[in-house]
Write a structure and sequence with these properties.
The complex is a heterodimer of chains A (258) and B (333).
Chain A: E1 3-12, E2 15-25, E3 30-34, H1 41-48, E4 56-61, E5 64-65, H2 74-77, E6 79-81, H3 94-100, H4 110-114, H5 118-137, H6 153-165, E7 171-175, H7 183-200, E8 203-207, H8 211-217, E9 220-225, E10 228-233, H9 235-239, H10 242-247, H11 253-257
Chain B: H1 2-19, H2 25-50, H3 58-76, H4 80-105, H5 107-126, H6 131-134, E1 140-141, H7 155-179, H8 181-191, H9 193-198, H10 203-229, E2 231-232, H11 239-252, H12 259-277, H13 282-296, H14 300-312, H15 318-331
Antiparallel strand pairs in B: 1-2
Helix pairs in contact in B: 2-7, 2-10, 2-11, 2-12, 3-4, 3-5, 3-10, 4-5, 4-10, 7-8, 7-10, 8-10, 11-12, 12-13
Classes of the chains: A alpha/beta (258), B mainly alpha (333).
Bound molecules: adenosine-5'-diphosphate and magnesium ion.
The site of magnesium ion has 3 residues of chain A, from helix 1.
Chain lengths: 258, 333
């Protein structure tokens, strides 16, 4: 198993956001994570990527114990992520935003950078090669020099994805990538998510409200409600699980997907 | 585009050198101070403009640099040029040591802590126990550097060209730093610290080092200023200096390298101008000019220059780009 989540709990004062959640994500697996608003999905993401320190439980990733590890080390372990509400560097160009995702490959410090030492230049060259690969993959080449803040929302989301991909993650955490996208864009996103998994041979943990998308791309789906896991299995079994249908009040999963 | 920019920089530098032979005396001294303050403001810009940490006390690092040079020259007979690297190292060390705890505070607390440093430093420089080095209230007088033998330059010309050369190298190094891996990280931390950290940037380390580099720049400027003025005293480095540097930063343009030069020109020339307009109410005139500037060019000189350039150099029309993106939006994989 690549990611092992065991009894992870998180409370904010009196609010129990996660009440002991356990599940695994395998290598090259796309795992959907669903649940009504406030069920703890983003909180779990934040626990995995170290932004929150879980109050109990453990998270292991590829042999490393993540609980307690430094936040800036996560990307080096192979965990890339996108954010539910965009977290881009607003004053920087698309190219520079994505290049920050390659920061952890570099060693050049202040002095080497200021002097443009050969090592620093070599790193910059290899970063640019990685950059051109992801620009092509996400079709961002035409807007590479634009300020991110000046681009449409959907494009900004792709920039965030590119920034995560350039880091060569083994596990990609995607928090509501379809939010704000129109129908045809969601279809393209589904193809893209599968293409990323196939071409880069990585695992993806996907939080999404768009049931259609989750059920189409996921190999497995985990459902949360009030911070607890209520279902875990193939898309078909989770979709018809009575607990899940009840959680998504009246009419269930299918109504939500429409 | 990079070629045009290089050409513009070379042309500007050539003009700056040529001016040394067109002006003399006080005017040359003023230009020397413009270059000096430009380096100081660039230093402040690295930490405040690029890294988003407000410092209201950079005058303190300027003062430390000035005193290091003055003490080395007067007490230890170190040649003026050799004091610069020493001053750089000492100021970087001060910046690092001060930044380590102060940066944990962040935001407005950092602004106040740096302000407190700038308030306290002149008092510290007057402290009797330090008098053998600092000269107490009297300060230190240092001798004016001569042009190296064989160069037929006046002392003022040499000092200006020397300062200009140091400034050119420091601006080049800063431009390299800010455009590369570290520069992107510095700006990323300002724009979104949580995302920057998730991208592998060690926030505490990066901020502290940026603060140290910033102090180094402003400290070297202090050294150059001391050499140009040939005198240091506690009262030359009141909090007003820190605020003046901050004014230069904002007027020149936040997060702009060339803006530091405009900002420096502003803080050197505008007070003189204000005095010429009205001796009695120079402060009020200065205030009015400052407010006028901020009102008419809120993005600073550098922002205005960029807009004018954009108008002069034809660009792809924005609509076309939009449409291209739109087409891509609909047809992307
Ligand atoms: N930083 C926080 N402080 C306090 N409460 C929080 C915080 N983050 C999340 N919560 C609470 O935790 C619960 C789960 O939120 P979240 O993880 O964002 O849900 P989801 O992403 O599934 O919609 C909610 O009740 C939310 O209010
Ligand atoms: Mg959420």
């Amino acid at each position: 198993m690549l990611l092992e989540i065991r009894d992870v709990a998180m409370r904010f004062g009196g609010v129990v956001a996660l009440a002991g959640v356990s599940f695994d994500v395998g290598r090259r697996e796309i795992c959907g994570l669903i649940g009504p608003n406030g069920s703890g999905k983003t909180t779990l993401f934040n626990c995995i990527s170290g932004i929150y320190r879980s109050t109990a439980g453990s998270i292991r990733f590829d042999g490393h114990l993540l609980t307690g590890a430094k936040r800036h080390r996560m990307i080096g372990y192979g965990i890339g992520r996108t954010f539910q509400n965009l977290a881009l560097f607003r004053t920087m160009s698309v190219r520079e935003n994505i290049l920050v995702g390659a920061h952890h490959f570099g060693r050049a410090g202040f002095i080497a950078s200021a002097l443009r030492a050969p090592g620093a230049r070599a790193e910059e060259t290899s970063a640019r090669q990685r950059l051109s690969t992801v620009l092509d993959m996400l079709e961002l080449g035409a807007v590479a020099e634009h300020l991110v803040a000046s681009l449409p929302f959907a494009t900004q989301k792709r920039v965030e994805l590119a920034r995560a991909l350039i880091s060569s993650p083994q596990l990609l955490l995607m928090d509501e990538p379809a939010g704000g996208l129109n129908h045809s864009e969601v279809d393209q996103l589904a193809d893209l998510i599968r293409a990323i998994r196939d071409r880069m041979a990585i695992s993806i943990l996907l939080v999404e409200h768009h049931m259609n998308l989750v059920m189409r791309v996921s190999d497995r789906v985990v459902a949360l409600e009030f911070g607890s896991k209520i279902a875990d299995g193939s898309p078909a079994t989770v979709q018809s699980d009575p607990e899940v249908i009840r959680a998504y009040l009246g009419g269930g999963v299918h109504a939500q997907a429409a | 585009m990079a070629g045009t920019r290089m050409l513009a920089i070379m042309a500007g530098l050539a003009c700056a050198v040529a001016i040394a032979f067109a002006l003399s005396g006080y005017h040359l001294f003023q230009l020397t101070m413009v270059v000096t303050y430009a380096i100081a403001i660039l230093g402040l810009n690295i930490v405040t403009g690029y890294n988003g940490q407000i410092s209201l006390g950079h005058g303190a690092f300027y003062a430390i640099g000035a005193y290091v040079t003055a003490i080395l020259m007067s007490n230890y007979d170190v040649p003026y040029w050799a004091t610069l690297p020493v001053s750089a190292l000492i100021c970087a060390a001060f910046g690092f040591a001060f930044g380590l705890p102060a940066l944990r505070l962040g935001g407005l607390y950092l602004a106040l802590t740096t302000f407190a440093l700038a308030v306290a430093l002149p008092q510290l420089l007057k402290y009797p126990a330090l008098e053998p080095w600092t000269g107490g209230v009297q300060g230190i007088v240092i001798s004016k550097p001569e042009a190296p033998l064989g160069l037929r330059l006046s002392g003022d010309q040499w000092l200006y060209l020397f300062t200009l050369a140091v400034g050119a190298v420091m601006f080049l190094l800063a431009a390299n730093l800010l455009s590369g891996r570290i520069g992107r990280a510095i700006r990323a931390v300002r724009d979104n610290p949580i995302a920057a950290e998730a991208m592998g940037v060690d926030l505490a380390l990066l901020k502290t080092r940026a603060f140290a580099v910033s102090a180094l720049y402003t400290g070297v400027a202090g050294s150059l200023g001391a050499i140009a003025v040939q005198f240091v005293a506690p009262d030359s480095f009141s909090v007003f200096l820190s605020i003046t540097l901050f004014v230069g930063l904002v007027v020149g343009g936040v997060a702009s390298i060339s803006g530091a030069i405009f900002g420096a020109a502003f803080i050197v020339f505008v007070p003189n101008l204000a005095e010429q307009v009205s001796k009695a109410a120079a402060g009020a005139v200065y205030g009015v000019i400052l407010i006028g500037f901020l009102y008419f060019i809120p993005s600073g000189f550098a922002g205005m220059a960029r807009r004018i350039l954009q108008r002069m150099i034809p660009q792809r029309p924005a609509m076309l780009v939009r449409t291209e993106v739109g087409v891509r939006e609909n047809g992307h994989a």
